[in-house]
Design a protein that fits this description.
Low-confidence stretches: 1-17, 471-491
Distance between the termini: 57 Å
Strand content: 15-25%
Strand order of the largest sheet: 4-3-5-7-6-11
Radius of gyration: 31 Å
Length: 865
């Protein structure tokens, strides 16, 4: 489907012969009033006031608001207020829900009509018109509002529009923060205004949160007298799960749902989602019914039938989550609404498989995403999924393609790392086929004006997608460049595509360049100040994480909190999450009760009400420029065609060793079949017992051309399994394990070439210290360069003696190569593999020189056998 803006242009062209442009203001004087119906609601009149205010800001004119019949003026209202059969097709209601947000804009002689199916839809029309004039509300802070200036204003716009995803919500996981009056609701009000201006709303409000505990609470006496109503787990009736086959429990569930709908006539969905956590019923009747999914959704079906009988058109909501993430064995009732969660799933199926299975069982499907969770991304660069525009676009389009009608995104009030992603996501939720490049170009141009090129580079530099592994591990890196080179104007180097101190240094310089370009634009400089303050947050966290002196670390922890508090109204950081989660942690860690947010008797050291000034912002920014200096490195690219090599080491010194490693998360190995057509390895999956309820682990063996030779699923038993991997010919093969996050161990026998492939953009999580691990330093290497993020480790030269104890993390490591130590095997000890990537050595590790595979061209150029 063409992009929305192209459709608008086509409609405009088709209708231009029917209506001339309408003059709304001339030389700062309004030509038409805003007209509402005498029957207009308070909500509609509030929209009219906002429309008048923004049109006034654009033109300098005063726009009156009048009641009228809609025959002339800027007509704003619902179709019921200004009936017109000709608008019927544009505003038609489908399936009782689709169309509640539909609107039409018509430019006609003497009037422009902003007509919606509902008041909410009319509001959408008003802000769509303002968007047409160039208004933007990128982030909730006032500084991110863009209102153009034009004393003369005309309109020739004809649009029919409605959202593809009917319920769209990007919300704050820790909620809003409050301040002292009169600003106690400022955070909430600013967010609500952002949502309204950007047409983020719900045709059908989704209610699918945990509800069984409410049934228990509302019937406390009965449950105390009837313990058999609770789930039987481990031989006891306990917890907050229900015995869903108990007839009385089923009636209580029906009564709860009907009472909710009777009490709240406007409520269109009542939740029948189970309580959080595990512990579903194990009684004989519930066992016969089936597992957790069958239990949860059988009760939902039962309640849905009762709801459909008494309240036709109303829904019963549930999540597909945790132990009941997979579909039941039966179809769901037509009025059951299911939201799939994008995390915390258990059972037999992967998330991708669930996306295929659920539409076969359920007619009403939505999704619960995780754009930002404080305990996952901590508001730090490069951010969470909310910062990953490529993944956002992929997932929203995927959800829309399978018929999703809602998406809830758990997020944060952290527009520093995620604001661009939140803005793009909201646009795509309305129209999934929108051109993301067009949305981003508009964002850069309107938010940053003359600094747009530098800011495009900044956002792309720190985007999570940038740090993912290349599809082609053999991609060539360009020559090294100096710190003053124009990064991102050509293909980035490998060092540019690893998040590190180097990345932050370049990000600082992007903002410095943007500041110079926007020196005559106070509006742009105000937005850049917000981002500079956000970089200061990252700077303080960086210093805190690397400080070893406890007193200094305490001071830096306080500085982080104080800075976040003083900048809270920029919404760059999620202050409420920091207040509710981080402050209690450091109160305990540093035994500082005066910081405790629960203590209301005294002011806190971090409660500095003064906003950060422009001068402070610049001073902090200069400190960041000084601390984060680009680290250009010599880079060398190697192919992925690896082969065994006879390395210049004495077998008596480095005996072949069995290779045993343990990971949580996926890892990729290069294996080589030499004389035999069988590659023997042992694997153990599910070494973390707590996670053995996740989907099966899966492995794949592919040849050097990427063709699958063998693949299988393995139960997460925690028991070793011997694999004799049969291959068609001798040569190179790749073994990849997906452990569902339950952890795994691999063992290859001594003498078997088995090499870990180090991905550029991915951290490997090895469980504990590894055995001594070997790698190769090519001939002619004067300085070894690699990136490291993880714990301390020791680097050993070819003689086995220590060369360096590396304690840095998130940095480039540069080690001088002693004369004669090039063209040799080096090794690591005390290494728990994290994010390791060599810039000028092959990205391979092995447990012995004999197991190490090296790029074929390097074997030839270094004259190895």
């Amino acid at each position: 489907m063409p992009h929305l803006y192209l459709l608008v242009a086509l409609i405009l062209t088709a209708r231009s012969s029917h209506a001339a442009p309408l003059q709304l203001a001339t030389d700062g004087r309004a030509a038409h009033p805003i007209v509402v119906s005498p029957k207009a609601t308070d909500a509609l009149r509030a929209t009219a006031k906002e429309l008048a205010r923004y049109l006034g800001q654009i033109t300098g004119a005063t726009f009156e608001i009048k009641e009228g019949d809609g025959s002339a003026g800027i007509v704003l209202g619902a179709i019921a207020d200004f009936p017109d059969p000709a608008l019927g097709p544009a505003l038609t209601l489908k399936n009782t829900v689709d169309g509640r947000e539909a609107f039409a804009i018509r430019t006609e002689p003497g009037r422009v009509r902003l007509i919606g199916r509902t008041d909410l839809a009319a509001s959408h029309a008003a802000f769509r018109l303002l968007e047409h004039f160039g208004c933007r509300w990128f982030f909730p802070a006032k500084e991110w509002e863009v209102v153009p200036r034009s004393p003369t204003l005309t309109v020739e716009l004809n649009v029919d529009d409605r959202p593809k995803i009917l319920s769209r919500r990007i919300w704050y996981g820790y909620g809003y923060f409050t301040d002292a009056p009169p600003n106690q609701r400022k955070c909430q009000d600013d967010y609500i205004a952002w949502a309204r201006h950007n047409r983020m709303a719900s045709s059908l409000p989704i209610h699918a949160g945990h509800a069984w505990q409410n049934i228990i609470h509302n019937n406390k006496g009965r449950f105390e007298n009837h313990p058999e109503y609770l789930a039987l787990t481990k031989g006891k009736r306990q917890g907050e799960m229900l015995c869903v086959t108990n007839a009385d429990v089923r009636q209580l569930a029906v009564d709860y749902a009907l009472a909710q709908l009777e009490k709240k006539p406007d409520l269109e969905m009542v939740s029948m989602e189970c309580s959080d956590g595990g512990g579903h019923c194990e009684c004989d009747n519930c066992k016969k019914l089936g597992g957790p999914s069958n239990q949860v959704f059988d009760l939902a079906n039962h309640v849905a039938r009762a709801v459909a009988e008494k309240y036709p058109g109303k829904f019963v909501g549930c999540l597909a989550y945790n132990e009941h993430a997979e579909p039941p064995t039966f179809d769901l009732e037509p009025n059951v609404y299911v939201q799939m969660t994008a995390g915390f799933i258990q059972g037999r199926y992967t998330y991708d498989e669930l996306l295929e299975l659920w539409p076969k069982k359920c007619k009403n499907l939505g999704f619960y995403e995780y754009f930002s969770v404080w305990l996952w991304d901590f508001d730090r660069l490069p951010g969470g999924r909310g910062a990953d525009v490529a993944t956002i676009a992929k997932q929203i389009r995927r959800y829309a393609a399978i018929g999703a009608t809602s998406m809830d995104a758990e997020s944060g009030d952290n527009w520093g790392p995620h604001g661009r992603g939140y803005y793009v996501a909201n646009k795509l939720l309305w129209s999934p086929d929108s051109d993301v490049d067009h949305i981003l170009a508009d964002f850069y141009e309107k938010a940053f004006g003359p600094a747009a090129p530098a800011m495009k580079r900044y956002y792309e530099r720190v985007e999570p997608a940038r740090f993912r592994e290349d599809d082609d591990p053999a991609a060539k890196a360009p020559p090294a460049r100096g710190p003053d080179d124009a990064f991102f104007r050509g293909h980035p180097s490998a060092a540019d595509r690893i998040f590190s101190r180097h990345t932050l240094a370049l990000a600082y310089r992007d903002l410095a360049e943007a500041t110079a370009l926007a020196k005559d634009r106070p509006d742009v400089l105000a937005r850049l100040d917000h981002l500079k303050q956000y970089l200061r947050f990252n700077h303080l966290c960086w210093l805190r994480d690397r400080e070893t002196d406890k007193a200094k670390k305490k001071g830096l922890a306080l500085a982080v909190v104080k800075h976040a508090y003083r900048t809270r109204h920029s919404y760059m950081n999620h202050w409420q999450a920091i207040y509710a989660s981080y402050v209690p942690k450091i109160t305990k860690d540093f035994d500082e009760p005066t910081w405790d947010p629960k203590d209301k008797t005294r002011p806190k050291a971090w409660q500095d009400a003064a906003p950060v000034t422009r001068e402070e912002t610049e001073a902090d920014f200069r400190a960041g420029l000084a601390d984060f200096v680009p680290q250009p490195v010599d880079e060398r690219a190697f192919s992925s065609d690896v082969v065994p090599a006879k390395l210049p080491v004495a077998d008596s010194k480095f005996k072949p060793a069995a290779s045993t490693q343990a990971y949580q998360g996926a890892a990729r190995y290069a294996l080589y079949a030499t004389d035999s057509l069988t590659i023997p390895i042992d694997v153990t999956v599910g070494t973390i017992a707590w996670y053995r309820n996740r989907p099966d682990a899966r492995y794949a063996l592919t040849d050097s051309a990427g063709k699958t030779v063998a693949e299988a699923r393995l139960k997460l038993t925690g028991e070793p399994v011997h694999l004799d991997l049969k291959v068609p010919t001798p040569g190179l093969y790749h073994f990849t394990m997906n452990d569902s996050g339950a952890a795994w161990r691999i063992t290859a026998p001594a003498g078997q070439p088995a090499t870990i492939l180090l991905p550029r953009g991915k951290k490997l999580s090895h469980q504990g210290h590894m055995q001594r691990m070997f790698f190769y330093v090519p001939k002619g290497t004067k300085t070894l360069h690699y990136f490291w993020a993880g714990g301390p480790h020791t680097l050993l030269g070819p003689d086995g003696k220590p060369i360096a104890d590396v304690k840095t993390s998130g940095d480039h490591v540069s080690i001088d190569v002693p004369p004669g130590a090039d063209g040799q095997c080096w090794s690591f000890t005390k290494l728990a593999l994290g994010h390791l990537y060599f810039f000028n050595a092959p990205n391979v590790l092995a447990a012995s020189p004999q197991a190490l595979l090296l790029p074929k061209e390097l074997v030839e150029t270094d004259n190895l056998k």
